[in-house]
Design goal:
With 153 residues, the protein is an alpha+beta fold. The chain has one domain. 28% of the residues lie in helices and 16% in strands. Strand 5 and strand 6 form a beta hairpin. This is DUF6194 domain-containing protein. Pfam families: DUF6194.
């Protein structure tokens, strides 16, 4: 599954804002070329965190994942604590278990190297489109639920 296919799928779920930082738009250079997807039924960039990101480079404060290679990328998904536990068989606050794929393992659903404790999962160069779609759909639903709870206050 390509990054563009992932982004198109997320957009098909509706009520999203896709941010693509680039030179000259005021975004930090480190974010250029990456994609940040927000739940935004009102349009525009909301005051919320993204629920899906697609990164195209290794970030300085994270373990290398081979993202600096041509065409490599990692999709990061705020899948939530329940999905994290179901996928990896542990609580996000617990250390990685025996046999758990290392972050950066191509095609494997892994704990996000920085945001795992918040229930974020990651896949480098995903090859299972159905799996990625399921994770993204879950994250979209959680983002919608958060928006609805805030709107009800």
């Amino acid at each position: 599954m390509t990054a563009d296919e992932i982004i198109a799928f997320v957009q098909s779920l509706g009520d999203v804002h896709v941010q693509r930082p680039a030179p000259g738009d005021g975004s930090p250079q480190i974010a250029w070329g990456d994609v940040f997807v927000y739940y935004s039924p009102e349009g525009g960039l909301p005051r919320a965190q993204p629920f899906v990101t697609v990164v195209t480079k290794d970030y300085p404060d994270e373990p290398p994942a081979g993202l600096n290679a041509e065409g490599a990328f990692r999709v990061n998904v705020a899948a939530g604590l329940d999905a994290f536990r179901a996928r990896l068989g542990r609580d996000p606050k617990d250390p990685a278990g025996q046999g758990e794929p290392a972050p950066g393992t191509p095609g494997a659903v892994t704990a996000h190297p920085t945001y795992a404790v918040l229930g974020w999962l990651a896949v480098v160069n995903p090859d299972d489109a159905d799996d990625v779609r399921a994770l993204v759909t879950t994250a979209h639903g959680l983002a919608k639920d958060r928006f609805d709870r805030r709107a009800a206050v």
